[in-house]
Specification:
This protein is mostly helical. The chain is built from ten helices and no strands.
Length: about 180
């Protein structure tokens, strides 16, 4: 499925999403790899196969095979980490925050792409999954690396757009109407 076909699937009430979806590649603060990696990782986090397929195809040459794999790795590792660290953040017993996680996270140390790109993609997924503790951790790492507020905002903006498209397409009324 192409990005245009995905836009065609969106109902009239989601016109703003169609317009926003067209803007994924227009970031001036992110490289094309950073923008499309954020979109792919967010699509995977949003769990809609149509959206994943369309974003993956639209990313095209903007994502090398290594970058495509790393964006998928960011979505996978953050699916685990976001649940665990959101729990430690929200649990009433704060001892959980100091206990070792005992989760393997080797890909974070060696993602196969620039660390900044992987951090942006992890941040985007953390925004989709609503993990405040992970958002704070990735934001701090990005600021330490000299990433601008605008770049961080763009990665999360892309995550918001992709997630909204996935959520809209999951509407059972759309399936019934097709």
């Amino acid at each position: 499925m192409s990005l245009d076909a995905l836009k065609e699937r969106l109902p009239d009430y989601a016109k703003d999403l169609k317009l926003n979806l067209s803007q994924i590649a227009s970031s001036t603060a992110l490289t094309p790899q950073q923008a499309w990696g954020s979109a792919l990782a967010s699509a995977l986090a949003s769990r809609n196969a149509e959206v994943v397929t369309a974003i993956d195809a639209a990313a095209g040459d903007a994502l090398s095979p290594d970058a495509n794999k790393a964006a998928r790795a960011a979505a996978a590792i953050m699916a685990m980490n976001n649940i665990y660290y959101r729990f430690t953040h929200l649990a009433s017993n704060k001892d959980f925050m100091t206990m070792p996680a005992k989760l393997r996270m080797n890909v974070i140390a060696n993602p196969g792409v620039e660390k900044v790109d992987f951090e942006l993609w992890s941040l985007a997924v953390s925004a989709v999954n609503g993990c405040g503790r992970c958002i704070e951790a990735h934001e701090q790492e990005l600021f330490k690396a000299g990433v601008s507020k605008e770049a961080i905002q763009d990665a999360v903006r892309i995550a918001a757009i992709v997630h909204a498209v996935a959520a809209t397409l999951d509407d059972p009324q759309l399936s019934a109407a097709a």
